[in-house]
Design a protein that fits this description.
globular; eight-stranded antiparallel sheet
Length: 849
């Protein structure tokens, strides 16, 4: 029997011990006075944790012995974590990296359909190379880290559980521990030691693209869940801690990633220190108290200081005050974002308390060499290196990596039957059932009798990739087909099986068409898959600008057919129109591979009984308007459409009528200009040069790259303009881009333009054109039709109606380049002051009706 819990009764005292006197001091090159001052500040807010895993004298003695025998090169190698696409087995043999990872979309042999045996084979080769001391003199075993965030999600055939937002709605920590234990077994079956989970972000703005990685807007459930998942992954400290069926866990991302301004991924959290602890640190209180052995630093800043370089948080708070004795690993080249750092050099991160650089791409080698040089020069102290390496060794020793068999010979390695095992899928199916939240049930339409004619429609009905969301085989969860999920069940297939078994009839239709009139329609629709960055939004309106799902709902309603909506999403969204057009509405979140769990709840048994009632309750408040993006339990002016904790069960009175306000309130937003290049590219935008098929990120004031030459230029002040010279030898472009798509559709709706200043440095022919890109670039606009070609060597201001680009296929809800200057011939121009400006179409140089 699962133990439920009441959030407001979880006492912090059960997870932390009473305040004790600090006995350790920080191991870096700051002076004692600064350390004492920092600790005195931390002591006021941060607790000393009663961590379940204690230091052992034997392990500490072993660490000291290793440190005494290791060279500087061997120590720094323990602090370098490259990615499998960027190193070879021979690199591992030569350098002896302390760890390595596979990022999202990376697979053994570069094969998305790599088998479990392929994963084990790579793990074995890397392990054997790491303990081969013939070149580097080290026999310290490496460890492999992976993002298993809702099951072993990179591996074909693995069990994929509901994403965290759904598990939060289930409100069942015992189930969470069971899910983590299943995940650990499937990870161990592929020879991997370490997972980058759990994410313990407390999300405050649902526009954030990682909202679905958060369990709840309430810190209490995050604290409880963090402890549960750490126990499930690692085993409890007093039972089978890091045994043959357990993996090393990572509590992430430290700290405040769920509270950035405007929900901006990798943005700035401006909370007070007390709020940082009360809201954003509770997952660390739970997970670290349970004994999690690693913490991942966050991309975000806290009050303008990047967390990867924040000594106060990483060392004074986390390690010294809270007492964490495991290691801190960076996120994907996160160290390179620190002021004064690059991906290839960052002593600031080590001095701040980072223990392992996560350094994908080819930057790992210069980073390794530069770190060694910085220790030799005294820029990084040997004491700080020894502390970092001691932490890495401590975790490896606790995990038994020195004593366990090699990956190919471990208890579960290569046992293919464990990947997606039926008993694992049953756990996932239970999680799906318990995560569903019933928002509307007019006239008690649900549960449905299965012995009737059911029309199943919507683009999510028979789409396992869509129902699984991001971090599903591929990083963004895109470019997947149902065949990529062997053993999985789509929502349609689950419904079909139960309806057919009860003597009913099912019709599957993509567009809602049918030959025989159905008794009821189930419409499955929602967000397309996305992961971090790409999932950030400007507001919470669903299908803004393209209401295809609403049109389907209205079409069915107009025909007098009862409609059950099953909504797939990674966050609460403004769906008032869709709610109005539905007789019943279910928030299904991102249920993963076991779509049969949806049918278990929506349908009665063949005998007419209720098999499974709704258990899920909203762990995120549901917005009243598209701009109500920061509505959270406990807010002073708390007024959501549906409150935290809401969720109907069968027989409950329906509370939502069919007349919800369909005004999104977006018209009330005060929209200002969006700067793209003003003096320099404005974050998140950066400048990229392309010649032929080669790309170059601009990193200096001048570049000569294939068919294009670039330099900064003075227009009004120093270097506030950019000059591009195309020699015509091949097609080339200068593109302002972002790593993650931006939602800019507001500017199209607000009759916006792209405005920029341009100077023709030589007569302009017909070769130069401007495009915008949303993944692929739309058809370009020839600039000879926009600029005054008679003006040479003089600046002129021009503007183009954004609708011109939208008409050419650009998706402004997912914009990756707002300014892409192309030429296949000779041209020389300078540009400056590039902006999106609302409400300026009437003044545009080029308008589009």
């Amino acid at each position: 029997m699962n133990t439920r819990f009441t959030l407001n009764k979880i006492a912090l005292a059960t997870l932390v011990a009473s305040v004790t006197t600090l006995t350790a001091c920080s191991n870096d090159n700051t002076n004692q006075a600064d350390s004492a001052k920092a600790y005195a500040s931390a002591e006021q807010i941060w607790p000393k944790l009663n961590i379940a895993v204690k230091k052992e004298a034997e392990i500490e003695s072993q660490i000291a012995s290793y440190l005494n025998s290791m060279t500087l090169e061997q120590k720094v190698a323990q602090m370098i974590q490259p990615e499998i696409r960027d190193i070879t087995v021979e690199d591992m043999r030569k350098y002896g990296f302390g760890s390595y990872l596979n990022g999202g979309g990376a697979f053994p042999n570069g094969d998305k359909h790599a088998t479990p045996q392929d994963w084990v084979a790579l793990a074995e080769k890397m392990y054997q190379a790491s303990i081969d001391d013939s070149i580097d003199g080290s026999k310290i075993p490496t460890m492999w880290g992976t993002d298993a965030v809702h099951g072993h999600n990179n591996v074909i055939g693995a069990t994929l559980f509901p994403h965290n937002i759904g598990l939060g709605a289930a409100n069942n920590p015992d189930l969470i521990e069971q899910i983590a234990a299943v995940t650990a077994v499937e990870v161990m079956a592929t020879g991997i030691d370490w997972v980058f989970a759990p994410t313990v972000a407390v999300v405050r703005d649902d526009r954030w693209g990682r909202t679905y990685e958060g369990y709840s807007e309430d810190p209490a459930i995050v604290r409880e869940y963090s402890a549960a998942i750490v126990n499930g992954l690692q085993g409890k400290a007093d039972e089978d801690f890091l045994s043959d069926k357990r993996v090393i866990s990572t509590v992430k991302h430290f700290l405040g990633d769920g509270g950035t301004v405007d929900g901006d991924d990798q943005g700035n959290n401006i909370d007070s220190e007390q709020s940082l602890f009360d809201i954003h640190a509770q997952g660390y209180v739970g997970g670290l108290s349970a004994g999690s052995q690693s913490v991942m630093a966050s991309f975000n800043s806290w009050n303008g200081v990047k967390n990867h370089g924040n000594k106060y948080l990483l060392t004074d708070v986390l390690k010294t005050r809270m007492g964490f004795d495991g290691f801190v690993v960076g996120d994907w080249n996160g160290h390179g974002q620190i002021k004064g750092c690059t991906n290839e050099s960052c002593p600031q991160a080590i001095n701040a308390g980072l223990d392992i650089f996560m350094v994908p791409t080819g930057a790992w080698k210069p980073l390794y060499e530069n770190t060694i040089a910085q220790v030799n020069s005294g820029e990084i102290s040997m004491a700080r290196i020894d502390d970092a390496v001691a932490r890495v060794l401590r975790v490896k020793l606790r995990a038994g990596l020195f004593d366990k068999p090699s990956p190919a010979n471990r208890l579960y390695s290569g046992k293919t039957e464990l990947i997606g095992a039926q008993q694992h899928r049953e756990v996932a199916r239970q999680a799906v059932r318990e995560s569903l939240v019933l928002l509307k049930n007019k006239n008690d339409l649900l549960p449905l009798a299965p012995n009737q004619h059911v029309l199943i429609t919507g683009d999510g009905a028979d789409n396992i990739g869509k129902q699984s969301g991001g971090w599903s085989i591929t990083w963004q969860g895109t470019n997947n087909k149902n065949a990529d999920f062997p053993g999985a069940t789509s929502i349609y297939k689950g419904l079909e099986a139960q309806v057919t078994a009860a003597g009913g009839k099912v019709t599957l239709s993509d567009d809602g068409a049918f030959e025989q009139r159905p008794d009821v329609a189930i419409v499955v629709f929602g967000e397309e898959p996305y992961a971090e960055g790409h999932g950030d939004r400007d507001n919470l309106e669903f299908e803004r600008g393209n209401k295809k799902s609403l049109a389907l709902l209205k079409s069915l309603k107009a025909q007098g057919i009862k409609v059950v909506s099953v909504f797939i999403s990674g966050r609460p969204m403004w769906v008032n129109s869709e709610l109005n057009a539905s007789d019943a509405f279910v928030a299904a979140w991102l249920p993963g591979t076991e779509g049969g769990g949806v049918a278990d709840v929506l349908l009665k048994g063949a005998d007419g009984s209720i098999k499974h009632n709704f258990k899920g309750k909203l762990s995120f408040s549901w917005p009243k308007t598209a701009v109500q993006t920061t509505v959270n339990k406990g807010d002073k002016d708390y007024s959501p459409l549906l409150p935290y904790g809401f969720g109907l069960t069968y027989g409950d009175k329906n509370v939502l009528a069919d007349n919800l306000d369909e005004n999104s309130q977006l018209d009330n937003l005060s929209l200002t200009s969006m700067d793209i290049l003003v003096g320099a590219p404005v974050a998140p935008w950066r400048l990229l040069l392309k010649s032929g098929d080669e790309l170059l990120d601009v990193s200096s004031s001048t570049h000569e790259f294939g068919a294009i030459k670039y330099r900064t230029e003075d227009k009004v002040v120093q270097e506030d303009a950019r000059q591009f010279n195309f020699d015509g030898s091949e097609k080339a472009s200068a593109e302002i881009v972002t790593s993650f798509a931006e939602d800019t559709i507001t500017y199209v709706e607000a009759n916006g333009v792209i405005s920029f200043d341009i100077k023709l440095n030589q007569p302009l022919g017909n070769e130069l054109s401007l495009a915008m890109c949303s993944g692929e670039c739309g058809e370009s606009i020839n600039l000879s039709n926009v600029v005054d070609t008679s003006l040479l060597s003089k600046w002129q201001s021009v503007s183009i109606d954004l609708k011109c680009f939208a008409d050419k296929g650009v998706n402004f809800a997912s914009l990756t380049s707002p300014f892409s200057l192309h030429s296949s011939g000779e041209a020389s121009v300078s540009v400056s002051d590039i902006q999106f400006v609302p409400n300026k179409v009437d003044e545009a140089t080029l308008k589009c009706e």
